Structure formats: C-alpha cells, structure tokens
Amino acid sequence: MPTFDFQGKAIEVDDDGYLVNLGDWVPDMAPALAAQDGMTLTDAHWEVINFLREYYAKYQIAPMIKILVKEIAKSMGPEKGNTKYLYELYPAGPAKQACRYAGLPKPTGCV
Amino acid sequence: MAKQMKPNEIISEIDYKKMPEGSWLDQPAEIKPGMFCWGAKAKSIKAVGFPNARDWNPSEEDWKLPENWQGTVLEAMKDRLGKYRSFKLFMDICVRCGACADKCHFYIGTGDPKNMPVMRAELMRSVYRKYFTTPGKMLGKLAGARELDIKVLKEWWSYFFQCTECRRCSVFCPYGIDQAEITMMGREFLNLLGLNIEWIMGPVANCHMKCNHLGLEPHTIVNNVEFMLDDIETVTGIRINPSFNRKGAEILFVTPSGDLFADPGTYTCMGYLMLFHELGLDYTWSTYASEGGNFGFFSSNEMGKRLNAKIYAEAKRLGVKYIIGGECGHMWRVLSQYMNTWNGPAADFLEVPKSPITGTVFENTRGTRAVHISEFTADLIKHGKLKLDPSRNDHLKVTFHDSCNTARGMGLLEEPRYVLKSVCNNFYEMPEHTIREKTFCCGSGSGLNAGEDIDLRMKGGLPRANAVKHVHDKHGVNLLANVCAIDRATLTTSMDYWVPGVKVAGLSELVANALVMKGEKERTTDLRGEPLPNKAGGDK
Ligand code: SF4
Ligand code: SF4
Questions:
Q1: Which residues of A touch B452 (CB under 8 A)?
Q2: Bridge partners of residue B399, in order along the sequence
Q3: What is the pLDDT of residue A95?
Q4: Best interface-test mutation with A: which of B3, B211, B214, B234 has the largest number of A CBs within 10 A?
C-alpha cells in the first residue's frame, strides 16, 4: 500500500493518492498534499475544500458538480459560480483534485 | 502517475504490420502504465465475500495469489465447460478465418495482435487444449496448447481487461463466436483468485451494501433529485413532485446511478422527471433499486445475478405492476439475455407492461416485465401523445451512438432513432459500418472507465471518435446522443480528446428540451441553461 509522508508519519493512500482512512485527515494535510502537485492553497481553494468536507459529512459522497457550483456562487459571488472557475482553481478537475486534498474518496461507477 | 499520451502519440504508435518476434505463445504481456486498471482492494473483495481479499498492485511482480491457484482455475474451467454449452462451443469451433481480426476497437486503436478477437480467444483456447483435449495433451505446443503458468495468467488478466465485452467481433464471425462470453469466463476465473479490478469491485461492493454503484445513500438521492427539480423549475416554471419508495405505485422506474450524480447524465435524469410529470404517470423512484447497471456482470455470473435480484425484490416489495428502465447499456443486456435464467421469469408477481397512456402492451418484455424508456417514449410519439417543438433543439446537429449493449444485446435500433428524429430537426447518421449492430464501442465499457487506464480508453475510443469526426467535419455535428450512462461519462472524455467541440447527451434530455409542457413558461434556455435558438439572447 502506498503512503504519504506527513509530519514524520506514513499516511496510507490508495494508488491514486487518495487517503485510505478519512479519519487521518487534518487541515494541515491539505496544503501538504497540494504541495506534491506544486500548488499553493489560497482562501478560494479552501472555500471548496471546506464545502466538500461539510457536504461529505452529511451525504457520504462528494457533491454533484452542479451543487458545488451553486454553493461557490453563493459564497463567492455569482461570477464565480461556474465550472470554468472551478477548473481554474483545480486544473485536474474540482471533483478529483479537490476531493484528494480534502481527504475524500473519489466517486466510482458510471462517472 | 504516468503522463497521459497525446492523440498524435497514440496514432503514430499504431503499426498494423508489426508482428511479434518468435512464437506468440511465449510473449509475456506487458503491464504498462496507462493501459491497466488498479487491482481490486481487499475491502471491496471482502464486502461481497469473494476469495483472496488483499491489496495488490498489478504492476508489481508478486500478485499475492492463493496456493494452488492453477488447480482452482482448471477446476472452474472444467465446471463451466460442463455448465455453459456456449463456452464449450466457442473453445472448439473457431476456424481462424480472420474475419474478426480487425473488427475490435482495441486492435484498431493499439495495433497489438493480441487484441484481435481471435487471438484474445486463443489465450484461453491454448490452455483449454492443454488440459481438456487429447491432441493438446499429447502434442502440446505443436497443437497450439500451453500450460497455465503465471505468465499466461498475467496475459489473461491483461487482455481480458482490454476487452469491453462489446460483441462487435461476433457480428462478423461466420460462426457467431462471441468473444465477450469468453472474456466473461476469463474474468470469472480471475475473480476466483482475487484478480479483479477496483473500478469494478468498488461499485459492486457499493451496490451490494448501498444498492447503487456510486454508494449514494437514500437521503443523498433525494437531495440530488430535488436539486434537479430546482433547475427544472428555473427552466420551465413548473415544480415537479416525484415520489420515492412509494408502495402501490403502478410503475417502478430504475436507472443507472450515474444519472443521479454525474453530468451530463443529470440532464438525462431531468428529462425522465419532466416526461413522467407531463404524462401524470403513476410511478415511483426507489432508493433501494437505485441502480439499473450491474457491474457484478463484469466480475462473475453469480455476482451479476445477486445484484440483478435487487430490482425485482424491490418491485415485489412495492407491489408495482411493472418496471420502466432508464437509459443504461448493460442493464438491458442483463435483462434481455441473462435475467430470465438468473432470477426470472418475473411473471409471478408483475404484469406485462402496458402503457397507461396509449394502451400499447409491450409483448416483447413478457420475460422481464421491464420496458425501455426509448420504447415507451417512441410509442407515445407514434400515438401523438406528446406535444413537441423540435426547433428548440435547432442549435444542435445530432448523431446517434448505438450503445453496444442495447444494439447487439437487445436489438434496440429503431426506437431511439425514431424519437431522435421527432425531437431534433438536424440528425445525421455516422457511416453504416459504425452504427446499429456494427456499432463501435465507446472504448471504456464493461467497467474499464477508470482514470488510470486512460491511454487504453482513448485508444479503444478511437474508432468511434473517428466516425464522429467524419460527421462533425462533413455536417458540423456538435452533439453525440446515446442511451447509456457509461457512454455519457466515457464519450464525453473521448470527444474532448479526439473531437473537441462535440458534446454528449442522453436521448431523454433532448426529448425534454422539445417537450411542450402544460402550464410552462416560455423557455429561453435548454436544460443546461444554454440560450435557445431564436430566443432573446439566443442563437449565438
Ligand atoms: S467483444 Fe469487443 S472488445 Fe472484446 S474482442 Fe470482441 S470486439 Fe474486441
Ligand atoms: S471470425 Fe470467428 S471463426 Fe473466424 S477467426 Fe474470428 S472467431 Fe474464429
């Protein structure tokens, strides 16, 4: 099983780098995961991560992209409520990349 | 993760003339990044009680196989040869005429001879000969027979997960040899050793525990649908109130969970909701039968049967008369070709579907008591029961992708086209040898639509994309319509890659765009919020 080194501890991740145990996640882990991709997290990135985690706690899955878009429009203004903006923040895809930093598993199936 | 190949790299790598050096029987398979899916995780295998649950990595040498794995496979092979006559027949009758050789999208997209259907079958036939035929036992290699060793096992794994079980090859074979059936057997044997892939076993485990591949909980399903209802209200001014898990409803509606979660399937889902509302249909959604698809079918017959049973158990519990099924591919292959001997016939507690609007009895569904949404919709249109304004789809130039499973697995060819032509003014067919029974696979079916095998997917998607490109260049086609949730997910990726500018949509989305609903406000956008042609702010 691959691992990710965090503050001297080996954290279990799956083959794509997603945390195996959701409980391992702490806020400091997100910037460390992002740094692996050469990214620095801004408040805007955190807006997405925080919403993903809140949503996950309630629904046990990442939100539909529509729901994420609407939420971002609500919190950051309508001009940012679109997938284009989310892809600017997370070039590898808001669902995939942001979920990984937020410590959530990625959805599987007909997606 | 390996860097994804570029389109020109894929094209320049294809060399149909290149042949392996030495005998193919000795060439080991290459487990190459971008070309394979991650191995199934221990927790997913454990969830359904399959053998040899452990975490493993296909690119590592040690696959952590159980002891006597060879005996397990040969034992199973013996059993299935006795049980399935088709399998026995397909092991015996190929005359190597080569008619199938260049018909597989994976061969066309990779140029790898082992992706010729006849060769894919030979991978198993060679082992069959060695242990189950006299010439093979006596003459070995001379008779094209070989032992089942670890090299062969890895080759099986590699190539049975480079086949989407699409059955295109079988259309061209003079004997009708169906490579999909051989691949299914191969996967079933591999499954006995815990050699499945996570992209299949994850959804299977989810469906087993939570009744759908994505693992959507009941309240999540309701929340997602409510969200779609908000969007429908924005577009049409109409508030819809569907029911969930309602006992005594006349009809149970079942669709793949992808439609309840991922774009562009969510627009297809909005289409179902709008159509059923307009008809005033007495139907219910179910959060238990919340998966039309069946990834179990991609792992073993037994698992396919277990997941399929859920739909009928729920139909019985709710006391519905029959089932309408949504736009899914393999759901219909399972229902049309497997369900009856697995869990059917469903005749004892369901009625033969009869449209409450037109009175049409769908006699063809006598065995399954489940009618396809396209058949149902085509019948409505034929009887003039829908008010349609196809000009609302005038910004679209549409072509239709027959999903392998509905086309070759159930013969659904005319109904979607009839519906499409009724709701769109601009429809163009792709070339004849790439549609209907001869349709090219999306390239990612049968559970291969993961992320890590993206190069394989784009290679396998090339023939379909190439045909789309043809009508895109010739007629300006900008929309690829289909009736399958895997298609909606995978063709979107494939179009962005091979034919940028072509979007992907389920048929029911286009129906709902054109559907003139009672009491609706004047529509200015389509379901995606894009401005309608000839409307204020539209026609861009
Ligand atoms: S079933 Fe489809 S993917 Fe498999 S060998 Fe035949 S054509 Fe290729
Ligand atoms: S077309 Fe049929 S008989 Fe001919 S090589 Fe292919 S599988 Fe064998």
A1: 15-16
A2: B480
A3: 81
A4: B214
* Amino acid identity for residue B72 in this structure: T
Whether residue A97 is contained in a domain is answered as yes
Whether chain A has a CB inside 8 Å of the CB on B203: the answer is yes
Q: Domain of A74?
A: 25-101
Give the 3-state secondary structure of residue B252. Answer: strand
The closest residue, in CA terms, to atom 6 on ligand 2 is B100
pLDDT in the model for residue A87: 92
Q: Which pLDDT score is estimated for B2? A: 66
Nearest CA to ligand 1 atom 7: B104
Q: Choose among B38, B215, B224: nearest Cβ to A64.
A: B224
> Residues in chain A whose beta carbon is closer than 8 A to a beta carbon of chain B?
1, 14-16, 59-61, 64-67, 70, 96, 106-111
pLDDT in tens, A79-108: 988 889 999 999 988 888 999 999 998 877
Summarised one tens digit per residue, pLDDT across range B174-227 is: 999 999 999 999 999 999 999 999 999 999 999 999 999 999 999 999 999 999
Nearest by Cα to B166 from B433, B415, B411, B444: B444
Q: Is the Cβ pair A16, B1 closer than 8 Å?
A: yes
A57 in a structural domain: yes
Report pLDDT for B21. 82
Residue A109 in domain: no
Round to whole Å and give the CA distance between B185 and B163.
12
B279 in contact with A, Cβ within 8 Å = no
pLDDT, tens only, A5-53: 999 999 999 988 999 999 999 999 999 999 999 999 999 999 999 999 9
For B2, nearest residue in chain A (alpha carbons): A16
Site of tokens 């099983």:
A1
The residues of A carrying an active-site annotation are: 110
Helix (H) or strand (E) holding B200: helix B198-210
Inter-chain CB proximity B261 and A64 less than 8 Å: yes
Decide: B216 and B233 in contact? Cβ < 8 Å.
no
The per-residue pLDDT for A98 is: 93
* Cβ-contact B362, B388 below 8 angstroms: no
Each residue of B422-444: pLDDT tens digit?
A: 999 999 999 999 999 999 999 99
DSSP B26: G
User: What's the pTM value of the predicted model, to 2 decimals?
Assistant: 0.95
Please provide the average confidence, as pLDDT, over all residues in chain A.
91
Which residue ranges in chain B fall short of pLDDT 50? 536-540
**Which residue from B115, B118, B124 has its CB within 8 A of the most atoms of ligand 2, so it is best to mutate?**
B118
| Whether the predicted pLDDT of A109 surpasses 80 | no
A76 lies in a domain?
Answer: yes
Say if the Cβ atoms of B263 and A64 lie within 8 Å. yes
| Candidates B227, B452, B489; nearest CB to A111 | B489
Contact B263 A66 (CB under 8 A): yes
Instruction: Provide the ipTM.
Output: 0.92
Q: How many domains does chain A have?
A: 1
pLDDT above 70 coverage of chain A, percent: 98
Q: What number of CA atoms fall less than 13 Å from residue B246's CA on the CB side?
A: 15
Rg (CA), chain B: 23
Per-residue confidence (pLDDT) for residue B211, from 0 to 100: 95
Q: What is the CATH number of the domain that holds A67?
A: 1.10.10.370
Q: To 10 degrees, what angle do helices B507-514 and B373-382 make?
A: 30
Entry field: residues in chain A: 111
Which residues does a 6 A CB cutoff place in the pocket of ligand 2?
B 94-100, 117-118, 173, 175, 177
* Residue with token string 């496979």: B73
Q: Which residues contact B394 (CB under 8 A, 6 or more apart)?
A: B425, B426, B533, B534
